[in-house]
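Practice problem 4.
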């Protein structure tokens, strides 16, 4: 039987996963909200359906695997009310839900793992906790093989500090004690594939690299890789920032990733931001050289 992945919300991370699965003979289905978003998926061989608009039950009937990749809104998870009945009738072999490490809240630079109590300090984090709980409730009721993946800050091709550095708009905002965890999008794909191959219904995994770091250090290293001046330091208290940007600094924590290594046997290709950024620069240079 041909394996078929349906992604509800076929965005940046899902496209990276699709590019890995396509050569292995997977059939790939996905939803996006607009025709513009659909056009962005042409390189990963995914059959795209616009939603809202396309009935989801026929797509679920074809899917052996299901990935929920859309964030919740004020009304909760956008897809759950529309797929719950179909999933009760025919659970897939594997279900993955992409969440965020924001569910842990602020730990003032301390370590968290998958057993840390959930205590979000932002509205976005609270919505994620509620969405996780809603999917877990359906999983318990319907026997869904649900796996939750809590993602750190995602970077990769086309998403990183380089564009702002080249444009001269990058800033090194300094907040003492502030650290973030992050992960390369290709390592996310690796973890998801490992989970599909070794499913453990009910499992929760943190997805991050091995080196939580202050954001200003990442910007400085990226500048050095490009041979550009390191942006000057700006104090967080006086920095001009949007409310959204400022909210990211409301939480500081280091995230442990032991479970993906010990349970899934994952060895990260990019174990820290230095390796990840160096690979992005090398790929850019190789593309320019062609």
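Answer key:
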């Amino acid at each position: 039987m041909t394996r078929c992945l349906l992604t509800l919300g076929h965005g940046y991370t899902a496209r990276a996963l699709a590019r890995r699965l396509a050569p292995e003979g997977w059939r790939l289905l996905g939803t996006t909200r607009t025709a513009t978003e659909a056009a962005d998926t042409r390189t990963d061989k995914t059959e795209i359906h616009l939603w809202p608009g396309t009935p989801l039950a026929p797509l679920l009937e074809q899917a052996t695997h299901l990935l929920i990749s859309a964030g919740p809104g004020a009304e909760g998870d956008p897809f759950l009310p529309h797929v719950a009945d179909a999933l009760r009738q025919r659970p897939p072999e594997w279900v993955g839900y992409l969440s965020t490490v924001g569910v842990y809240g602020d730990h003032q630079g301390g370590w968290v793992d998958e057993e840390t109590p959930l205590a979000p300090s932002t509205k976005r984090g609270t919505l994620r906790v509620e969405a996780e709980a809603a999917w877990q409730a359906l999983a318990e009721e319907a026997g869904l093989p649900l796996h939750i993946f809590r993602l750190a800050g995602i970077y990769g091709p086309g998403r990183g500090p380089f564009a702002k550095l080249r444009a001269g708009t990058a800033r090194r905002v300094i907040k003492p004690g502030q650290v973030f965890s992050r992960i390369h999008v290709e390592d996310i794909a690796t973890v998801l594939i490992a989970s599909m191959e070794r499913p453990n219904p009910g499992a929760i995994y943190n997805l991050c690299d091995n080196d939580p770091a202050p954001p200003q250090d990442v910007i400085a290293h990226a500048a050095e890789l490009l041979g550009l001046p390191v942006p000057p330091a700006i104090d967080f208290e006086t920095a001009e920032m949007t409310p959204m940007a400022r909210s990211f600094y409301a939480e500081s924590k280091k995230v442990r990733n032991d479970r993906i290594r010990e349970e899934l046997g994952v060895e990260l290709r990019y174990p820290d931001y230095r390796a990840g950024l160096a690979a992005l620069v090398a790929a850019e240079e190789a593309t320019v050289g062609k």
